[in-house]
Design a protein that fits this description.
With 205 residues, this protein is mainly beta. 5% of the residues lie in helices and 62% in strands. The chain has one helix spanning 2-12, and strands at 23-36, 44-45, 47-59, 64-82, 88-108, 111-131, 139-141, 150-162, 166-175, 191-201. It has an 8-stranded antiparallel barrel. Strand 6 (111-131) and strand 7 (139-141) form a beta hairpin. It is elongated, with a radius of gyration of 19 Å.
Length: 205
Amino acid sequence: MHKFMLLFGALAGLAGPAQAQTIRYGLKAGVSLARLTNYNFVGVRNQVGATAGLMADAALNEKLSLHPELLFSQKGLRVDESGPGGFSSSFQIRSNYLDLPVLLRLKFGTFFAEAGPQAGYLLTLKRTETNNFSNVPATTSNSTNGARRLDLGFVVGLGYQLLGRWELGARYNGGIVGVNSGSFGTSQPRNSVVQFQAGYLFGGA
């Protein structure tokens, strides 16, 4: 926690010495609905996951603040297929990231809008394939071979703040590089995540 405060204190220091006294820290958690872009198969579903971590908020003025976060985020993809004779199969990709979004937050009374870049580091990756044929076992792979470790993207979101401390928000988290090592361009599969989060900022009103 101490290292986190030092890191975000440095980021918030971009506001200038006069704003250093207005840095607040908090916790947040929520759920995510994730999939991969350009993964155009029949039966593609959102992969439900979790997100949780720490945040800081440094006021630049009455309306604008610098808002970095450090989050554990689950992403990935789910594909459910069915065929003749009652055949069904499921393919899942669950990827766990450590995300660092650095956002600008614009406040409108009790509401806020936020946007900014994000860097993520792939911690673990699990691929699982199952079907309803008893003689074909499920297969699982935890290898990160071929996967890009560093994910770059952006975040845009909206939220509501209650009593200056509690907040609820929804955001879109989009990747700008492919999830596969060496993959670039808009035709490559990229992370695409919708997140719903609740948080609490210590101090303040």
